Amino acid sequence: MRFVITVGFASLLLFNAIMPAAASDLAANKQLVRDYINNAINKRQPDAAERYFAADYVEHNPHLPPGIAGKKKFITAVLKGFSDYHGEIEDIVAEGDEVVTRTLWTGTQDGPFLGRPATGKKVQFATSDFYRIENGKVVEHWDVVDSLTRAIALGLVPPPK
Q1: Separation between Cα atoms, residue 52 and residue 130, nearest integer Å
Q2: Which end of the chain has fewer surrounding CB within 10 Å, N or C?
Q3: How many CB atoms lie within 10 A of CB 36?
Q4: Which candidate, 117, 89, 71, places its Cα nearest to that of 32?
Q5: How far apart are CA 24 and CA 29, in angstroms?
Q6: What does DSSP say about strands 98-108 and 86-95: parallel, antiparallel, or unpaired?
Q7: Which fold has domain 2-153?
Q8: What's the pTM?
Q9: φ and ψ at 93, to 5 degrees?
């Protein structure tokens, strides 16, 4: 009986020792993504991306340039095109080594973007972003972008009738 109680107590201690670490990893992973969006994009510091993305980072969106250099290049282009570009995380979920966000992006195209001159048009669109984290850095990213809403707002396609 003592053995069963001892094993049960040891299991409980082990469980409590592991769970806070796992919970803190999830919280740290979510904070990493929040900090990336806030610092690199909302505070307009594209070079800050190096703090959040691994050197061997893989971008799975075929429309974005690859690697960390590509991430900084894309952020720079967006910020040149939209002086008030802003991302607001509306939902964030973490499990294992993954973080998923639903983000609302807003801005006014007051500079060149996608080869088009400034239009003065306001955009508001959403993305769902999927990040895989290793050793405190983003190593992979996938996204789903509400491209139609953005394209209509920028005048790239006519609105539906």
Answers
A1: 14
A2: C
A3: 22
A4: 89
A5: 8
A6: antiparallel
A7: Nuclear Transport Factor 2; Chain: A, (3.10.450)
A8: 0.83
A9: -135, 140
